[in-house]
Design a protein that fits this description.
The chain is α/β, with parallel strands linked by helices. It is built from ten helices and five strands. Strand 1, helix 6 (104-115) and strand 2 (119-122) form a beta-alpha-beta unit. The structure holds cobalamin.
Length: 212
């Protein structure tokens, strides 16, 4: 079992996007639990990749190849989760706020949430407060996840929370925020429900927030 988990982790960290499907399939054939593949191999490998990126050991291209590799691996495991886990999890809207085009981190968070069985509606980048509010009304998600990578766009997150309050929607949706310049103190200050430093923390928050 450990051998298969290590092989998947190494493949994601090494960006072996062409081989990963076979490696994951071999693990499944050997009876490795799909949840272990997601949590102990795919997500755990991306934690390593995230740390290596943060410390300057690897750069954006390597990180993207690892993310694609993880997604390819996830595609093999996901159908096996449909019908059990994915039905019991909640709905999450993910978006990068207005004025901000950075989406690598948001996409990673989206992939991890999907891997953990959430239904994720990814609205993309540069989302105005108005559009976000419209989508919250339409989709009625359990969680709204906002990403910002620029200090100049962080105030948009505050505006979203304020608008949720003024339109009487605040108690119906949990708000989680993230992105490199965002931290716990900021999240508390703007009245968000939680801050996640990475995709694994985003999954933890979404799990906590969508317990019904
Ligand atoms: C890649 C990149 C770009 C790419 C973006 C490509 C893309 N499709 O995303 C391009 C080249 C387009 C770009 C453009 C710009 N960029 Co830029 N960019 C970066 C860079 C190098 C990496 C960002 C990244 O992808 N990180 C990796 C991901 C995985 O990390 P992450 O986003 O933080 O996400 C993780 C966590 O934060 C968390 N997370 C993220 N979102 C969420 C959401 C929730 C809900 C939760 C819980 C968690 C969570 O989980 C993620 C996974 O672990 C950073 C520098 C850096 N080292 O951060 C600069 C950086 C963010 N950019 C910067 C700047 C200034 C710009 C530009 C203004 C440059 C210019 N003059 O044109 C433009 C702005 C464009 C715009 N309007 O948005 C500055 C911002 C400075 C500041 N104080 O605001 C930085 C810090 C570079 C620097 N040191 O100056 N950029």
């Amino acid at each position: 079992m450990a051998g298969h988990i290590d092989a998947i982790r190494d493949a994601v960290i090494g960006g072996k996007h062409g081989d990963i499907k076979t490696i994951v399939q071999e693990a499944l054939n050997a009876g490795v639990d799909p949840n272990a593949i997601i949590n102990d191999a795919l997500i755990s490998a991306m934690d390593v990749v995230g740390k290596d990126f943060g410390s300057g050991k690897i750069f954006v291209p390597e990180m993207l190849v690892s993310a694609v590799t993880m997604k390819n691996g996830l595609d093999v495991v996901k159908p096996l989760l449909a019908g059990n886990e994915s039905r019991s999890r909640g709905t999450v809207i993910m978006a990068t706020v207005q004025g901000d085009l950075h989406d690598i981190g948001k996409n990673l968070v989206t992939m991890m949430l999907e891997g953990a069985g959430f239904k994720v509606i990814d609205l993309g980048v540069d989302l105005s407060v108005e559009r976000l509010l419209d989508k919250v009304k339409e989709i009625k998600p359990d969680v709204l996840g906002l990403s910002a990578l620029l200090t100049t766009t962080m105030p948009e997150m505050k505006k979203v929370v304020e608008e949720l309050v003024s339109q009487g929607l605040r108690k119906h949706v949990k708000v989680m925020v993230g992105g490199a310049p965002v931290d716990r103190v900021f999240a508390e200050k703007i009245g968000a429900d939680g801050f996640g430093a990475n995709a694994a923390e985003a999954v933890e928050l979404a799990r906590r927030f969508s317990v019904k």
